[in-house]
Amino acid sequence: MDSDVLGGIGMKERGAALITVVMAMLVITMISGVFFFLVRSNMKLVNSEQGAILANNLADAGIQYGISLLLVDEIKAGDEPFSLEDLPSLANPPSDPLNNGGDFDIWWENGSEANSFIIFSRGSYGKITRTKTAGFTIGTEGVGGGEGSGGPGGGEPAYPYWDLNHRYIEGDYVVYSVMIDGRSVERLYRARHNGYVGELPGAPWTTWQEITNHYRVSNFYELINGNTIIYYGSTYWQARWNGHGTGNEPGKNTERSSGMWRELIDEWRPYEAYPEKEVVSYNGKRYRVKWNNPQGPPDASDPNGPWELLEDCVTLQSVVISPSSMIIKEGEKVTFRATALFSDGTTEDVTSKVIWSSTYPQIASISGNVLTGVMDTGVEGCNATLVSASYTYNHQERSDIVINRVGVTEIKVSESHEGDEDSGLIIWEREVLSGP
Fold it and tell me: Which domain of life is it from (predicted)?
């Protein structure tokens, strides 16, 4: 074969080999680059995760540091409710508290109850931060009946926050912040029926029903749903019929026959429309109603008038539920007793004679006189139900005396008991992630 031809073939083979080598080097370089990138990314991920853990631990340390400041002897020894002014000054937290770099900042606000505070702690490690918020109570005995009493539930709300662009259907729950006593607090709402996009929780005439035992102008009160007993002012009230809270404020009606609410009290009230055969107290005396919706105040000076003075007739005055105002755990059962109190000071066990009810069976359900804790909503002021015992008393000697009295007590449901330690208790905690 011609030498020129052989030389040409050799050149082609050497060129192909060179291309193969170059391609192999490119592939190796690419693989090395990918491997280096993966290693570098993994190292960054590990460092970031380590930083996140350290920042989280720093935030935890800040919460505990804040609690330690709340539990100084000067605070624990006080007899009056504490406020921010009573707290010790925020000393500079220790530098590098974990001996591994990083620090934390803390601050606090007053809680919804006396001696309760909200502690904020921000742990920082490099550019990574973790923020935690904890509700803390100094001395946790007793259960109040005020707005939002008892503080938040045992954990984070298990419901989504309200979305302006979402259309909610019947049975949906959302969390939404509203202003109460000049403070923004989260409240829990339930859709009564299918709603429209943009319906604002807490606004009148919407689908939203706030889960609360307090009167709300935005709520609709429906006898069949059981939410017809509320706390307003300093007493409990019961709805006579279905109606909106708007325009039906308890005790504000000017005509006795138009009031939606019945105040659950033995004393005569000028705004009440009393039925025939009912008995009320007025100025230390007992009066029977002769016919429906009598003009008041009670006065028996006219024998043909609507009032009869009961001088020697023993009648029912009230019903008391025991135990009362307590906190129970999810799944815990409580057996109640109802006691009737009479005008002569005598009592009677009427546990089996009353009608038992729970305003929010999704929080605590009742069967007979046994209540079962169902769910802690985790939302402040929205984790309690009102247990009621309604007793209709028919006088044994007088058929013209029929009295109805309702005993009421508030029961809260928590994942864990509040008040187990006098020194204080973290009643809820929230974590917020921030930073890269």
Answer: Bacteria
